[in-house]
Amino acid sequence: MTSKKLSVLYWGATVFAALIMGFAGVLFLLRVQAAVTVLDHLRYPLYFANLIGVTRLLGAAAVLLPVPKGLREWAYAGLTFDLLITIFSIPSSGLPLLAIMQPLIILVAVLGSYLCWRKRSSSGGYDVRPRCA
Asked: Per the confidence metrics, is the pTM higher than 0.70?
């Protein structure tokens, strides 16, 4: 895959995922009725709105902004866990299985962004060697 195609894929997936997660974070922090309804359907307590809102905003910012590699890895992990928990909570709360499509699409975008980011990074992969000064 060419560098240009990889960049387009990376930025497309990253901006899509970050905008969706950031926007959702704001909705949860402001406790907009739609966000409160989601919490009710998933049977989460209302105070989760703050936790979900802050973590989604921080995760979206960390994948868009120039941050240290480790922080970006944690942001991708956090967004992935958030979406996986949502996907598994949907059928557990009695909602129709089709309701997992939205978080599943966003999860695919987050994972696509992560994989493209890893491929674009100069190290190319995980460096498991100890670092000495």
From this structure: yes
